[in-house]
């Protein structure tokens, strides 16, 4: 399967020509990090715009290598998709995030949702639904609190099998979000057929709100479109009050962004969000 990120990777690889050693090192390191459980998840709160309260969090992968330093997921996820590690990473993330969410909900008597990013490549792999079902049974999370975020795919990858997979996940009680909406391939036709529950407006559109009139027009159109299709809307990357006001005015349901909180480690999320005390 092809993805935008795969293409980013190819661009990157073209720049890396003659640097195969570093490439191999990266693959070995990532493989080790996965095996030794040294990858981490950070969690960014998701806020209900009507009530102002936290309804859940998005799990975001963090990789700090002692030798290579911090590697952002935008950099190593496309690489993992290309070298075949992405499915193992996806399983690891699902297990880790659901385990953590279950602990938090049990400890604090909450019903927080946890959103996990899954590569289109992974979700298109046979056996994906069975794997998710196993992870749910294993971690005992309420499937109604699990969300899966998938980025837009090209029409070519949009098969009957994929629709069936999405339907099967939904019938388990899982919520499906279309991530990075507006940045990829999704046409209106695609959106009509793709059985998602939530549209996630990409940060780039949120940033445009303060830059002029067309920014607001775009946001307003995207939210109207989502609502016409009976989808809920999450806006990501909210940093300013002005952005928040525009989103609220146009009926956006949920927001994430630095205005509320950066993605936080387990300890910081526990202290700063759940215990509401400063560390
Ligand atoms: P995304 O899913 O669109 O995630 C949103 C990104 O925006 C995250 O970057 C987040 O830290 C950042 N962000 C959130 N709020 C703000 C804000 O107010 N301002 C700014 N400037 N940035 C904000 P991050 O964590 O570096 O992740 C980048 C991308 O890597 C993600 O984009 C996602 O596509 C991918 N990714 C991250 N974790 C995973 C994972 O576990 N699995 C997969 N397959 N992809 C992942
Ligand atoms: Ca996401
Ligand atoms: Ca995004
Ligand atoms: Ca993204």
From TrEMBL:
Give the EAL domain ranges: 23-277
This chain belongs to the protein called Diguanylate cyclase
Instruction: Record the organism.
Output: Lysinibacillus contaminans
